[in-house]
Amino acid sequence: MENSAIPCVQFVLKQSMTKAVISSYSISKYCKSARMSRSTFYRTFENGKVDLLYKGLEESLKDSLMPKKFDKTMRMSIYRGLKEIEAEKNFYLSIYKITRMEDRSIIRVRLKKLAYQIVMKYADKFEGLPKRKGKTLGNLIYNNISEWITHGCLENVNEIYQQLELLLPQVEGHRCSDNNK
Predict the structure, then answer these.
(1) Whole-angstrom distance, CA of residue 72 vs CA of residue 162
(2) Are 18 and 95 in contact (CB under 8 A)?
(3) What domains appear along the chain, each with residue ranges and CATH number?
(4) Are 138 and 116 in contact (CB under 8 A)?
(5) pTM of the predicted structure, to 2 decimals
(6) What tens digit of pLDDT does each residue of 85-142 get?
(7) Concatenated DSSP letters for 30-57?
């Protein structure tokens, strides 16, 4: 039976991907879990599995990395987000393993745009940021987090945080007085 509302993609994907890393995932499995017909799936995800996997990543990364009301600083928000990613590393590794090599570049471009949006959202809380600098910082943040995830989050979360922390003063308008997570 088909639901009229599209379920949260990350929720459906995480049901299969958080306990262990998986290397295959079918559209049929998604449709069954989401109680969605294949025709609705293809109307929702025009490019099939690549759109599905990207949407799951996008939802999850936004939930983890976007500032929350209770985050007093960007540093707190980034650290909290990294801890959430680390806790769900099987989900991220599964998506990486499931994604075909030729689709990874499509997802990479989209995730870099998402990283840019996240950087600009933080920067707006301060003095703003030129778009070019925001794009560069978004790419650097994406590269650090992506490499960490694809290597199984083996580095301690504090080590990856320290790498990202070097970029934060640029986003915060060179406010060096805020050194707390």
Answers:
(1) 18
(2) no
(3) 9-19+27-172 (1.10.357.10)
(4) yes
(5) 0.85
(6) 999 999 999 999 999 999 999 999 999 999 999 999 888 877 778 999 999 999 999 9
(7) HHHHHT--HHHHHHH-TTTHHHHHHHHH
